[in-house]
Design a protein that fits this description.
The complex is a heterodimer. Chain A is an alpha/beta fold. Chain A has twelve helices and nine strands. Chain A has a single domain, classed as Aldolase class I (TIM Barrel). In chain A, helix 2 links the parallel strand 1 and strand 2. The chains are: A alpha/beta, B alpha/beta.
């Protein structure tokens, strides 16, 4: 059983937590997310031009780069995380250019050696899969794709083809953390997508509070929270871990109990 | 260099929007359906005589085309080499070649039923051209412009506002063109249902590099006919400045299959190629940014580095993907000139021909000044004078230490 298969269950939705690598004390932040009950970790690879991200994650990217974060540092955080947490799935999320800079095989090898389970490349459309997908699959790393409100029934198979791990449904047409998740349309869209795939479906973009997370967890296999954590790191810096753990715990309780009674 | 020379240099991109290894569609999934719709609509528009008729009519009566082809006698004499001719796209309405593309794209937006226009701008020329066509067609328009550029290009900001555009200063990153493009993409992804993004150069996700090139190719198509009529033959060398590369590809493309015509694209070497510059072909590596794969200024980790040029219109860390391909095939030569050389080119054209060029074509003029003396007197150079310099007089005055 892969770490992803173990993390997702038909009877219990999973909490997926995102932070940006190199922003604050990354290892302590990751440990706090796990201690609070995170089921899957998404570690953001900083990029100078995060064009799908809202102000919170943009700022986190710039803080991280200003602190001198390199790709080697991101891989080191991943390696150390894997050593401390052998069972929690770890996903690298970022933009194509830093991933392909030294060649897709280099990146796939390095991510594999670091114990990474999946990669989300925001600006790599399925149409450009040859730039990264084959190298990842050859190393057993899951390319995780995004489906959005604009991904209609005709296009969905294209997105699903070559995806593995889980499918990330973006709840709103927009950037991260800016708008509120559109709860009313999520139910219908997750149900629609579920007819086309057996992959777990996680929902993100615009989820910050336990009440939102709980509502989404009733229909989705997982709920992603990112900007709310990144804001905490932005506000509290190296003192962020205890605040991160508290928020994670309240989100985890809401997500894990959503399907009970 | 690729292993073999293609049969034609004019049949790119392929059906996936690739120019060799360059180009493509590297965008977030939310945008993909819209990009595919745009491609489908553009294919239909190209086959529709009514679309071409409306485009041509607007270019003639609104933009003022064809632009003149001008022989520069005193510059030619001063350089004492090849004859120098200029394609005078600075005489277009709004003062640059940018309007050609904006006319084409707004007609596409209207065909697609879009009711709101967005655009990015660096120096403000593309912003002004976009605001102009939006006023002409009565569509609301939001222009994203780096806060740094808003401060240093105040006259163009005022022009855009006069034309009814909302100008949004972008404060992220270095607050210049690259950041304005990021912010335009963020707006687009949140407003795909009603919004059309008029990209200002021959870059971005497919089909933008192709359609911008096609709309700008009016420059080369006219120049080719005008040169044949006036000189009885094809030119020996075409020269154009390159930021994203839309004026250059517009001039070059209709000549690409004329083997006797050499071409020279001129990048901005800023303070020098060993210092801060904007020459992505000379100093960059292939990478992925803003929807396409092309040469980018970047570090070993793939982080994009800031460009610098005295010309805000060339101040961008990438280049259109077709230029990347034309460099690799060897069909077009690329060189670069520094801020100071461009400034000398600027002053040279003012002094010899009574034409104040924009700082973008001043780079082309500087390259012409280097190469013309090495060519025989019966050789013909045609350079693209893609913009007029009124917008740049403050920048030039500052560099020359003149109080205005």
């Amino acid at each position: 059983m892969t770490r992803f298969q173990a993390a997702f269950s038909p009877t219990r939705s999973a909490l997926v937590c995102f932070i940006t690598a190199g922003d604050g004390d990354t290892s302590a932040n990751l440990d706090a997310l796990v201690a609070g009950g995170a089921d899957v970790i998404e570690l953001g690879m900083p990029f100078t031009d995060p064009m799908a991200d809202g102000p919170a994650i943009q700022a986190a990217n710039l803080r991280s780069l200003a602190a001198g974060t390199k790709t080697a540092d991101v891989l080191r955080y991943a390696t150390e995380f894997r050593a401390r947490h052998p069972h929690i799935p770890l996903v690298l999320m970022g933009y194509a250019n830093p991933m392909v800079r030294r060649g897709p095989e280099w990146f796939a090898d390095a991510a594999s050696a670091a114990g990474v389970d999946g990669v989300i490349c925001v600006d790599l459309a399925p149409e450009e899969d040859p730039d990264l997908g084959p190298a990842l699959r050859a190393k057993g790393i899951c390319p995780i794709r995004l489906a959005t409100p604009t991904t209609d029934a005709a296009r969905l198979p294209r997105v699903l083809d070559g995806s593995s791990g889980f499918l990330y449904y973006v709840s709103v047409a927009g950037i991260t953390g800016k708008q509120e998740a559109a709860l009313d349309s999520i139910d219908a869209n997750v149900t629609r997508i579920r007819q086309s795939t057996d992959l777990p479906i996680v929902v993100g973009f615009g989820v910050r509070r336990p009440d939102q997370a709980e509502a989404i967890a009733r229909v989705a296999d997982g709920v992603v929270v990112g900007s709310a954590f990144v804001d905490i790191v932005g506000e509290h810096g190296v003192n962020a871990p205890s605040f991160l753990q508290d928020l994670t715990a309240s989100l985890a309780k809401a997500v894990h109990n959503a399907r009970k009674g | 260099m690729t292993e073999q020379t293609p049969n034609s240099f004019r049949n790119q991109p392929d059906e996936r929007g690739h120019f060799g290894q360059f180009g493509g569609r590297y965008v977030a999934e939310t945008l993909m359906p819209l990009i595919l719709d745009l491609e489908a609509e553009y294919i239909k528009a190209k086959a529709d005589p009514a679309f071409k008729a409306e485009f041509d009519d607007l270019l003639e009566h609104y933009v003022g085309r064809p632009s003149p082809l001008y022989f520069a006698p005193r510059l030619t004499e001063e350089l004492s080499g090849a004859q120098v001719w200029f394609k005078r796209d600075e005489l277009n309405h709004t003062g640059a070649h940018k309007i050609n593309n904006c006319v084409g794209q707004i007609l596409l937006a209207i065909r697609m039923g879009k009711t709101r226009i967005i655009a990015e701008t660096g120096a403000g020329q593309h912003g002004v051209a976009t605001a102009t066509v939006c006023a002409r067609f009565g569509l609301p328009c939001t222009i994203f412009m780096g806060a740094t550029d808003v401060a240093r290009q105040a006259p163009n900001v005022f022009r855009m506002k006069l034309l009814g555009a909302e100008v949004v200063p972008v404060t992220s990153g270095a607050a210049t063109l690259k950041d304005a493009m990021n912010e335009a993409l963020r707006d687009w992804v949140a407003n795909v249902h009603d919004t059309f993004y008029i990209i200002g150069t021959a870059a971005g996700p497919h089909p933008y590099p192709e359609l911008v090139r096609d709309f700008q190719s009016v420059i080369g198509t006219e120049a080719r006919a005008q040169l044949l009529e006036r000189t009885g033959r094809l030119p020996d060398l075409l020269v154009a400045a390159i930021g994203g590369g839309s004026n250059a590809i517009g001039l070059f493309h209709p000549f690409l299959d004329d083997p006797s015509v050499k071409m020279l694209g001129v990048e901005a070497a800023g303070h020098g190629l060993d210092k801060e510059h904007a020459a992505s072909l000379a100093g960059g590596f292939p990478g992925i940014l803003h929807g396409n794969k092309t040469y980018l200024l970047q570090d070993d980790d793939g982080q994009i580095t800031e460009a610098h040029s005295i010309s805000a219109g060339l101040d961008y860390p990438g280049i259109g993907p077709e230029h990347a391909w034309l460099k690799e095939t060897g069909r077009v030569d690329y060189t670069s000139v520094t801020d100071m050389e461009a400034l000398e080119g600027f002053k040279l054209l003012c002094r010899t021909e009574g034409i104040i060029p924009a700082l973008e074509p001043a780079h082309a003029i500087a390259a012409v000044a280097k190469v013309a003396p090495t060519m025989p007197k019966d050789a013909i150079i045609c350079a693209n004078l893609c913009g007029r310099g009124d917008k740049d007089i403050f920048t030039v005055a500052e560099v020359l230490g003149v109080e205005m």
